[in-house]
Amino acid sequence: MSVAHLAPASARWARSGLALLTGDATPALPRRDHAGRIEALLSAARTAGAEVDMRLFGERAAELGLTRRGRTSANGTARLIETADGWLVANLARIDDLQAVPAWIGCGLGEEPWAALQRAARRRAAADLADAGQELGVPAAVVGGRDDAQQRARGEGSRVVRLAPGRGEAVRQPLVIDLSSLWAGPLCGQLLGLVGARVVKVESAGRPDAARRGPRAFFDRLHAGHESVVLDFATPEGRGQLARLIARADLVIESSRPRALEQLGVDLEAAFAASPALVWVSLTAYGRTGPWKNRVGFGDDAAAAAGLVAWDGSGRPMFVGDALADPIAGVMAATGALQALATGGGMLVDVALREAAAFVAAADPIAEAELGEVVGGEGRWRWNDTPLAAPQARPERRSASVMGAHTAAILAEFA
Amino acid sequence: MNLKPGSRWKSAVCAAEAVVVRPPNAEVVLACGGVPMLGPADERPQGATVAPDHAGGSLLGKRYIDAETGLEALCAKAGEGSLSVDGRPMVVKDAKKLPSSD
Predict the structure, then answer these.
(1) Which fold has domain A155-293+332-340+343-349+395-414?
(2) How high is the ipTM of this complex?
(3) A412 falls in which pLDDT band (50, 70, 90)?
(4) Is A210–B5 a contact, with Cβ atoms under 8 angstroms apart?
(5) How far apart are CA A362 and CA A30, in angstroms?
(6) Of A190, A205, A307, B80, which sits with the fewest C-beta atoms within 10 Å of its C-beta?
């Protein structure tokens, strides 16, 4: 059977590059048309003026050589764990997360954290475990959580909020100050840079973007052509320089928890009061309002929290794609940013990774008849018959700027 | 004081609360505002106040460490008192290093 003979939803999935990143030994076909939702996102981004395509979603896996690992995320740091009443996702990506496990679940200090967590989880409710983990700053969540305090607080309202009057005309060739790190925020910055924004990446001297320690090619693609500024956020002088750069920006991208921004002295209301046409793009795990505004999350756990997982024939979840909430949120953020710039600014674009992934998770079910054609036993894709596209990266020949190369020039120009 | 991982302590003199993340390698007293911290069920004494040299404050969500014994505690509620171990001020641990790929 070739792709041409597959019905549309499964054919879309086969072509997406995500099919090979989903499942365990055998690729799994999610039961919903997630690729259709992703195509809808791309279409909206193009309408807003962005240059995007399906490669964005699998290009990190292509670059890093990652592949599907079932209930372990493609990058190896997150796992899906069965609890007494459902599934938990935990992402022990940092040393501090691994070291927090004894305090989180009460196991011994020498125990292997994942084994201890799996054992403890069988006796506990998923939501209780997630709450306790988050109190310690560990990225943990209920898989496909419904009707939790954050969803009730955030509701279904628009995530683009007018905070200042804006100006009567579009903001052209905007100055973008990008304070974000890792994938989602930098992807938003890159997409804005591709269509004419001047992007200045600003990093803290004490805590530069951790993606610099990852594969060079991936960092280069997201930052090629951007200027690089390093400030010492630990000093009043550095925080003052940051404040002056923000005051000159047309658009700010940040992926910090609101509490961390406050501790840096960054005040959103003051920024909009000083710059009525400002656009502020915030990327957080669960949104910058509500009781979970300071919860932590990364691309794999936020996607699973949204229910963007593939359920196998025995009712067990597997990860879908690689940190998929990151590129989904990055594309949504860029779309919101371009729309806000086109209408004169004065807007906050409040993108939550979980909510972004939830849009893709909530795709229409794939029709039973169509599933029957392509799914064998246990919910597994009959991939031997079906060519599945490999994830691909967009080509980029340029390098990112040397870290801090533009600090003096940018401070002289703007601060 | 049994400062085992996950144990919760409240300040005797302000609103601060701390959760032990890593235990100390010796018997120590964890204090806030210069006064030993209390278990969750203990009554706060009347009239105790933050000592002036332990009034730097505790910030919500920050991890504090004592290099000498390895004790690490997370501030679960902010307060005016600062944390100390046998009289030594605890220091804020550097922000958690992000993974290179998340």
Answers:
(1) Rossmann fold (3.40.50)
(2) 0.90
(3) very high
(4) no
(5) 12
(6) A205
